[in-house]
Amino acid sequence: MSNRCISCGMPLRTPEDHAAADQSRDWCVHCARPDGSMKDYGEVLTGMTQFYVRTQGLDPAVAEATAKQAMSTQPAWRGR
Amino acid sequence: MTHVARSHGFREASTTDVAKRAGVSHGLVFAHFATRDALLVEAITALGIEVTNAMHALVREGASLRDVLRAHLRCIQDDEEIYARLVSELPFLPARARSAWVGVQSAISQHMSHAYAAGVDAGELERMPVHLMFNTWIGLVHHYVIHRELFAPGSSVVRKHGPTLVDHFLRLLRKTGD
């Protein structure tokens, strides 16, 4: 079991941090759909982009490029 | 990498210096990291995880914004020298390294936003976009940390000025009424 989300890299500290509070899933609650399945690349990219804009006020294009860069280093999206 | 960056800076820290500091051959560094940039990104990511883990441990459910700000300062103070190096050099580091730090900052902003929202809902704090609240805090803290030799020569600027910065920032946010 990874202690970081394979999709966005968020630390998985508690059971509730995991998708559907299921510790066998190594992606986080933010990268999961309501049924616990992992969101697809586009959904995660949109979520991370919006997160950067909301929390730091980044320019949306910069936020998207930054999110792509960050995702490219994660196991779920490596090489994208 | 972090140990070497302490004396050389992140921009100047070479893989040769890192190997020497770790007591391994230069080639072994590249067995683990394909490029110097990859090593740099890993070092910054590790530093970020250290900071966010420390904040997570210090900030309890229902913590006030003052508690979160104090926790943030404590995390910076843990290694003020390396933090100052990083934030002052960040604009000149490769895009991948900058991206890694953006994620860290958003995690900190998220911590602050929960406590901030509670203060707004309680009618104590002015409502403003989360990013403006966060960037105001970061701008203030980073100015003092980067220029720490002007404000606290030879000592910790966070220890010396942290409580004043927290008080000042909260005063800026306090709801004053129409």
Characterization of this structure:
The complex is a heterodimer of chains A (80) and B (178). Chain A is mainly alpha-helical. Helices cover 36% and strands 0% of the residues of chain A. Chain B is elongated. By secondary structure, chain B is mostly helical. Chain B has 10 helices and no strands. Chain B has helices at residues 2-8, 15-22, 26-32, 36-58, 65-78, 80-89, 95-121, 130-146, 148-151, 157-173. Chain A binds chain B through residues 8-11, 13, 51-58, 65-66, 69-70, 73, and chain B through 41, 45, 49, 52-53, 56, 95-96, 98-100, 102-103, 105-107, 109-110, 113, 129-132, 134-135.
- What's the assembly state of these chains? heterodimer
Structural category of chain A: mainly alpha
Per DSSP E runs of 2 or more residues, the count of β-strands of chain A stands at 0
Shape of chain A: globular
Question: Which CATH C-level class of chain B is it?
Answer: Mainly Alpha
List low-pLDDT spans of chain A.
none
**What's the overall geometry of chain B?**
elongated
Cα radius of gyration of chain B in angstroms: 18 Å
Low-confidence runs of chain B: none
CATH topology grouping of chain B: Tetracycline Repressor, domain 2
Q: How many independent structural domains of chain B? A: 1
Number of helices of chain A: 2
Proportion of β residues of chain A? Answer: under 5%
Q: Gap between N and C termini of chain B, in Å?
A: 52 Å
Q: Approximately how much helix is present in the residues of chain A? A: 25-40%
Please bin the fraction of helical residues of chain B: over 70%
What Rg of chain A, in angstroms, do the CA atoms define?
12 Å
> By helix and strand content of chain B, what is the structural category?
mainly alpha
As for the number of domains of chain A, it is 2
Distance, first to last CA of chain A: 23 Å
Number of helices of chain B: 10
